[in-house]
Design a protein that fits this description.
Blueprint (H helix, E strand, L loop, with lengths): L18 E4 L8 E8 L4 E4 L4 E6 L9 E6 L2 E2 L3 E5 L4 E3 L1 E6 L2 E6 L7
């Protein structure tokens, strides 16, 4: 029988626009906003975190070419959601309210 890898679930509790804190690695403790989320890869791009240098050729948008610094994705397991009201990190859970599901703070129950 073939050894099949398990596919990760595409459900992420951190979405674009959330404020997160990096909890591990080189940027530990840095707070930033999620610029883009990639549910299939389980990664996010956080503002001012994980910069890479990309070498580009001259093009119409960038006639000079050269080296560009930009943010690279980091795994979603390395960040935690930041609650502004509490001033600390928390987890997001889904609660059923009436007919719809809402993302709420695990500690306080406030809507995110």
């Amino acid at each position: 029988m073939l050894n099949k890898k398990k596919k990760p679930r595409n459900k992420m509790k951190i979405i674009k626009g959330d404020t997160v804190v990096v909890i591990t690695g080189k940027y530990e403790g840095v707070k930033g906003k999620v610029l883009k989320a990639f549910p299939k890869d389980h990664s996010v791009i956080v503002e001012r975190v994980n910069f890479i240098k990309k070498h580009t050729r001259p093009s119409q948008q960038n006639p000079q070419g050269g080296i560009i610094e930009k943010e690279a994705p980091i795994n979603v397991s390395n960040v935690k959601l930041f609650n502004e009201k509490l001033g600390e990190v928390t987890r997001a859970v889904f609660r059923k309210v009436g007919d719809s599901r809402m993302r709420v703070c695990k500690k306080t129950g406030d809507k995110i």
